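forwarding from the other thread:

> can someone predict this with 2-acetamido-2-deoxy-beta-D-glucopyranose?

sure thing
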Amino acid sequence: MANSNFQHFITILLLFFFISPTFSQQSFRPKALVLPITKDGATTNQYKAQINQRTPLVPLNVIVDLGGQFLWVDCENKYISSTYRPARCRSAQCSLANSDGCGDCFSSPKPGCNNNTCGVTPDNSITHTATSGELAEDVLSIQSSNGFNPGQNVVVSRFLFSCAPTFLLKGLATGASGMAGLGRTKIALPSQLASAFSFARKFAICLSSSKGVVLFGDGPYGFLPNVVFDSDSLTYTPLLINPVSTASAFSQGQPSAEYFIGVKTIKIDEKVVSLNTSLLSIDNNGVGGTKISTVDPYTVLEASIYKAVTDAFVKAPAARNIKRVGSVAPFEFCYTNLTGTRLGAAVPTIELFLQNENVVWRIFGANSMVSINDEVLCLGFVNGGKNTRTSIVIGGYQLENNLLQFDLAASKLGFSSLLFGRQTTCSNFNFTSTA
Ligand SMILES: *[C@@H]1O[C@H](CO)[C@@H](O)[C@H](O)[C@H]1NC(C)=O
Ligand SMILES: *[C@@H]1O[C@H](CO)[C@@H](O)[C@H](O)[C@H]1NC(C)=O
Ligand SMILES: *[C@@H]1O[C@H](CO)[C@@H](O)[C@H](O)[C@H]1NC(C)=O
Ligand SMILES: *[C@@H]1O[C@H](CO)[C@@H](O)[C@H](O)[C@H]1NC(C)=O
């Protein structure tokens, strides 16, 4: 009797072990997902994420492109997977990718080279190089999250991405195998992951000079020690659609996948900077306006805006008594012996006024001043020259230690302002897994 009970117990135990992996994958629906981000600070200033793709899973480093259209990876160099499937022309996947391209390949069939496949245009937004690639599906594994910690890994069995030839990796950080697009298309990571797990089309990024994080899905999001960000702790501004694609190659009529916001006025130490305000709006040709970018390491300003902003910065009372030193490329305005504050070096505050006087994105010393060495800090804005496509590109350094939440359904951006003001940083996500 005891013996048969014991056998029964073993059978149940075995059943449990065999069933539980698939069971847990199918029944566990994550609330959110988390992707750790590291900065390749020494050389490229690119932000890298590690994803796990294919069967068997292969860890891949990909560069985070906030406005990128989709995930693209090098398929030319050792793509081995039993679950790779090219997307056919005119398939449902192909229309999700907004493509009507149909591709053939005159070589032996392999990932990235099949006939009758949906053609897309993977874009290296750092070198501004685009090429044609095959749209495909494969397994993607990613860590779930409750917004505060990572949890168990979950799998998307048919995650859409584009194959690219090896040459497209040129200009990316060493060891990178592609780019992860977080833009506003249906096949960029945020929308594809939201639809795979039926959570809100929202995601947050929190970059840092060391370890940061992207959280897919809605908040609240927590950082150590016990700092919680929810809709009450963020300031919101509408996300604007640029009607003309800003990708390196595109077909006519395609809107931009990048995230634009409406800066109306710039103030420095509470004084309005006089600018040609028509540069601040996006015209019918998609020129002008302000976008947020993770592939530009520093904020880039159109020449006349750059001149007005830097003139105002240098003349502001808070900058008059600090000691200027020689410029350090790509920066022009460098200082020594700056006093430190909780919000970074004591320099004039740069304020971007958005839809009204009450919605302000403040740039304090921690985001405006770039440390060159122990003594010298430079204003981390660069001159984009005349005839820029986008007048203001808010770059990675200016985003660090600010939490940004993109709400695709409501087309709005929530921003936290510098986290130092709340005694935390973007590297304070608690990466201890609860799984
Ligand atoms: C595609 O079709 C062409 C013409 O039929 C053939 O020469 C080529 O080998 C095929 N390519 C692949 C990858 O199957
Ligand atoms: C302001 O910018 C617009 C758009 O670039 C340009 O057409 C116009 O000539 C500029 N106005 C002045 C006064 O510079
Ligand atoms: C920085 O400040 C210290 C103390 O006030 C002074 O001795 C030093 O000369 C200053 N350095 C420069 C480069 O101005
Ligand atoms: C991080 O999360 C783990 C798991 O929930 C928890 O045990 C740990 O106390 C947290 N760390 C801190 C410093 O709060």
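Residues 276, 278-279 surround 2-acetamido-2-deoxy-beta-D-glucopyranose (ligand 2) (CB under 6 Å). thats all i got for now
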